[in-house]
Amino acid sequence: MLTILFDGIAYGMLLFVLACGLSVTLGLMNFVNLAHGAFAMAGGYVTVIMMNSYGISFYWCLPAAFIVTALAGIVLERLLYRRLYSASHLDQVLFSIGLVFMAIAAIDYFMGGQQQLINLPPELSGRFDFFGIDIGRYRLFIIVICAVLTVALQLALTRTRFGSQLRAAVDDGRVARGMGINVSVIFALTFALGSGLAGLGGALGTELLGLDPNFPLKYLIYFMIVVTVGGTSSITGPFIAALLLGIADVAGKYYVPQLGAFIIYAVMILVLILRPHGLFSREGGR
Known about the structure:
Blueprint: H1 2-28, H2 36-54, H3 58-79, H4 89-111, E1 127-130, E2 133-136, H5 137-158, H6 161-171, H7 173-178, H8 183-209, H9 215-230, H10 236-255, H11 262-274
Antiparallel strand pairs: 1-2
Helix pairs in contact: 1-5, 1-8, 1-9, 1-10, 2-3, 2-8, 2-9, 3-8, 6-8, 9-10, 10-11
């Protein structure tokens, strides 16, 4: 049971890193970016290319995946996304889902449709026993990295000048501009941060989740469930939701494998019946 709990926490942590960028853009910027999974896929393919084609260490691939996808996020935000900030959510959904299919087609053309594999460093492979708990080394690595990222992101959004400026820009852009805040730059940096985190999550998840051109569609529903169940008023909600869903999914597939992925949807339905706005959303919030 403790081993299943540990694996569930690792899976939940990975889901959070993959989904927290969507939580930021949707909750703080009020932009529905369904192409979020495409940035995660991009981070995964950056890792695959660097490791398999150039022999670069996995540890260097992680920051590279973040930087490349963050830069791609800035470029797309400047060229495309900024034009839809004031558009309806339906327009945002149609636009971003179109980007998903374009990304899938591009990856399939250049990289092929096969499953991509990487070889983890020897120190991250295998498992070890810790007081009766069968711990996977790579899962432990994911938990540590994701925990550090979660704390850093929470502090950045709540305790820094950037976080204050972002909240001001979202609440009332006109007043924020009057106070000397460059709203355009704040939004671009926020979008880049969300894209970079997705890319990093994609790099970390290549070994556990698999990677192929259909990755954005395959895991989009998981990202949406994490954000919906957790709420969009903070990143605390999605973090708790990701842990809850990760543990429920792993435990459900172990104890009742015949139900498959139904467990995670059952948890979502139960939570939304009790908390229609999510675990940590303000009632009547966006």
